[in-house]
Amino acid sequence: MAIVASDWAQLSPINSSAPVTVASAATIAPTGFLTVLTGNVAVVTITPPVLHTHMLALQFAGTAGITGATGNILTTTASVAGQVMLLVFNPTTQKYVPVG
Q1: Which domain holds residue 19?
Q2: In the predicted model, what is the mean pLDDT of residues 72-85?
Q3: Which of 41, 46, 48, 72 would you label with 89, given CA atoms 20 to 30 Å apart?
């Protein structure tokens, strides 16, 4: 199934929109490829912006955050403040898989 052009434009890593900054929370809802998270609350659930395979980049600003495996993130992964964490969404399992 082909990706809808509007979905590609929204989630493409080469789009011209600025990253969105949101407060780190147990559940986040990214709207584009790169989301900057402030704070240090563990992210355990990500509301997918689209329901097909896609990749998101999360950057924890200032204080390191941790993704937990209790929601729709497959494995627990510690982040490093300032670095980007990539996650791939698997529509079959409805889970995000950290890259690396």
Answers
A1: 5-98
A2: 89
A3: 41
97 SS3 class: strand
C-alpha closest to that of 85 among 28, 25, 26, 37: 37
CA distances from 6 to 10, 32, 49, 70 (A): 6, 11, 12, 31
pTM: 0.85
**Domain with 53 in it: what CATH number?**
2.60.120
The predicted-structure confidence for 21-41, as pLDDT tens digits, reads as follows 999 999 999 999 999 999 888
